[in-house]
């Protein structure tokens, strides 16, 4: 069974081109991953390699947060491990979230803003197929960006691990994060944008709304520094499952409740 | 008896539950007809098109287009019906040909078939030379004609057109009008045309609906509408000066005339004038134009009749 019909494929492909052709979307889709998985980890790595740990405040308290498997590491290794497992997941998750929500904002609200959504609704595709093609298109675009970011991130961190004589960074946390939480977050970014697209008046307004979505991720990972909890593979697994259920619920609601009249309002 | 292409029964739409954009519209348009839906801006023409195309749900009454209920099966309807609305735009980033190819595929045509249809339509609507130009760089007239081409890409059985000649120069208007007529006459395509350009409507349509403030004021062909408002046929003669003809009134400096009930009266009138020694330079049968009828309707409505 084909996932997309030729008409749906044509729509998804045209969406890719449209999103990529828009300067704001293209800049966000390129810059966010580069900053999150290349620039910030490299800056941290250079910092850890060159600044004496004794000159940093609070290193000891931070190292207390380390997982059991990081015991036996020196301060430099410990700080790099901390960055890789407590800060970088936050940076990494922003990629699927921002790329998917920005793509969806352009795909839905941009299309509405340009008056082409009405023309699409006048084709035999129908609202469900339009939603399906657009959601899958945005998820696919975001997945490509996230996969490329993951490869780049792995290279950067592997280089850091080699330079600091540490084992390869990939663990259970990252496994759940990459293969379950990232897709769940990606789908959430898209379906959330679809849900709010009926209310949004412009693409810019929509992109601004998407900025609020990163807050829970920031709170989840920075909250670990209070020492009250640690984000482990089990918690990530639980969050992934809940988020996938929410994704399904939003998708179900969107597909049932949306009518051309509501979308074009 | 021809089949009914568009049927509406007390169709109405209110956006806020208080004011009706369209109220109590009952219509029957036969297959192959070119129906002109006339009225000023804000009369409810666009709302009607959107209800007939399934973009809006009626708040009262019902409608069927080619036997399909638009609000229930819009996709099925859009397969056989081409629609042009003023707010349905095409992709400015794409060229005319790319737009046509995309919408051809969205209509369910194969890529090759889309290209073939696009070529035919772009040529016939005089858009071939600008086919590789981005739509954003095209003039309003070209964009409008491309919208019409888009609506016709899948050989529709019915066209719902909302002001399709808006923004076009006279030459393009005539071109588009002749294409619509051709489609209706040769291929039996039913056309529902919303317009406030009465001259074009008279050239194109064989029956009319006059709508104002969401309500249908009258519906019928030119003859029945003129009867309804009390406008009749008029004869006009240009005669040699000197004799005063019986039964005719002076209309202006050059002509004489009067209202007649039927065109059958014309030969009798001419022979009467000739036998009474009048010399006829010109004899004309003047039918009330759609503009006359429309103005009369507006006048009557103003008088509350």
In short:
Chain A has 265 residues and is mostly helical. Chain A contains eleven helices and no strands.
Model description:
Chain A: One of its GO terms (molecular function) is ABC-type transporter activity. The complex is a heterodimer of chains A (265) and B (305). With 265 residues, chain A is mainly alpha-helical. Chain A has helices at 6-21, 23-50, 59-64, 75-113, 116-121, 126-163, 172-197, 203-211, 214-222, 233-257, 260-264. Chain A has one domain (6-263). In chain A, 78% of the residues lie in helices and 0% in strands. The longest helix of chain A has 39 residues, at 75-113. Chain B folds into two domains: 2-225, P-loop containing nucleotide triphosphate hydrolases (Rossmann fold, 3-Layer(aba) Sandwich); 231-286, no CATH class. By secondary structure, chain B is α/β, with parallel strands linked by helices. A six-stranded mixed sheet of chain B has the order 5-6-7-3-8-9, sandwiched between helices. A four-stranded antiparallel sheet of chain B has the order 11-12-10-13, covered by helices on one side. Helix content of chain B is 35%, strand content 27%. In chain B, a hairpin with a 5-residue loop joins strand 1 and strand 2. Chain B contains ten helices and 13 strands. Chains A and B meet through helix 1, helix 5, helix 6 and helix 11 of A and helix 2 and helix 3 of B.
């Amino acid at each position: 069974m084909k996932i997309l019909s030729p008409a749906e494929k044509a729509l998804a492909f045209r969406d890719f081109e449209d999103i990529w052709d828009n300067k704001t979307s293209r800049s966000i889709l390129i810059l966010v991953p580069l900053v999150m998985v290349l620039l910030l980890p490299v800056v941290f790595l250079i910092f850890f390699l060159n600044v004496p740990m004794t000159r940093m405040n609070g290193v000891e308290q931070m190292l207390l947060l380390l997982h059991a498997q990081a015991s036996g590491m020196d301060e430099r290794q410990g700080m790099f491990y901390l960055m890789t497992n407590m800060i970088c997941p936050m940076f990494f998750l922003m990629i699927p979230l921002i790329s998917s929500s920005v793509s969806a904002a352009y795909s839905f609200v941009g299309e509405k803003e340009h008056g082409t959504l009405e023309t699409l609704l006048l084709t035999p595709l129908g609202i469900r197929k339009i939603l399906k093609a657009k959601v899958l298109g945005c998820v696919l675009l975001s997945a490509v960006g996230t996969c490329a970011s993951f490869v780049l991130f792995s290279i950067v961190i592997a280089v850091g691990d080699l330079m600091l004589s540490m084992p390869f960074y990939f663990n259970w946390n990252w496994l759940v994060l990459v293969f379950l939480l990232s897709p769940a977050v990606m789908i959430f970014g898209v379906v959330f944008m679809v849900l709010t697209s009926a209310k949004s008046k412009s693409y810019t307004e929509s992109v601004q709304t998407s900025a609020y979505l990163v807050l829970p991720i920031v709170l989840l990972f920075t909250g670990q520094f209070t020492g009250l909890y640690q984000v482990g593979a089990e918690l990530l697994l639980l969050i992934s499952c809940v988020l996938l259920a929410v994704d399904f619920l939003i998708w179900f609601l969107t597909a049932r409740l949306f009518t051309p009249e509501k979308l074009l309002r | 008896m021809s089949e009914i292409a568009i049927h509406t029964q007390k169709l109405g739409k209110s956006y806020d539950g208080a004011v009706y954009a369209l109220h109590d519209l009952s219509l029957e348009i036969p297959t192959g007809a070119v129906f002109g839906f006339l009225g000023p801006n804000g009369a409810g023409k666009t709302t009607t098109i959107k209800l007939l195309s399934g973009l809006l749900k009626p708040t009262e009454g019902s409608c069927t287009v080619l036997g399909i209920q638009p609000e229930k099966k819009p996709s099925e309807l859009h397969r056989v019906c081409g629609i042009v609305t003023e707010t349905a735009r095409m992709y400015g980033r794409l060229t005319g040909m790319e737009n046509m190819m995309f919408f051809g595929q969205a209509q369910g045509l194969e890529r090759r078939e889309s290209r073939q249809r696009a070529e035919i339509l772009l040529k016939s609507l005089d858009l071939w030379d600008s086919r590789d130009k981005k739509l954003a760089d095209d003039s309003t007239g070209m964009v409008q004609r491309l919208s019409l081409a888009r609506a016709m890409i899948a050989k529709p059985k019915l066209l719902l057109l909302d002001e399709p000649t808006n923004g076009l120069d006279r030459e393009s208007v005539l071109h588009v009008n002749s294409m619509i007529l051709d489609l209706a006459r040769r291929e039996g395509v039913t056309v529902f045309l919303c317009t406030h350009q009465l001259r074009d409507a008279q050239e194109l349509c064989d029956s009319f609906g006059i709508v104002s403030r969401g309500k249908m004021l009258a519906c019928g062909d030119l003859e029945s509408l003129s009867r309804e408002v009390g406008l009749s046929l008029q004869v006009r003669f240009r005669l040699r000066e000197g004799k005063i003809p019986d039964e005719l009134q002076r209309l202006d400096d050059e002509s004489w005339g009067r209202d007649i009930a039927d065109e059958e009266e014309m030969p009798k009138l001419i022979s009467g004038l000739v036998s009474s020694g009048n010399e006829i330079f010109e004899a004309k049968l003047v039918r009330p134009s759609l503009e006359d009828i429309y103005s009369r309707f507006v006048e009557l409505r103003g008088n509350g009749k």
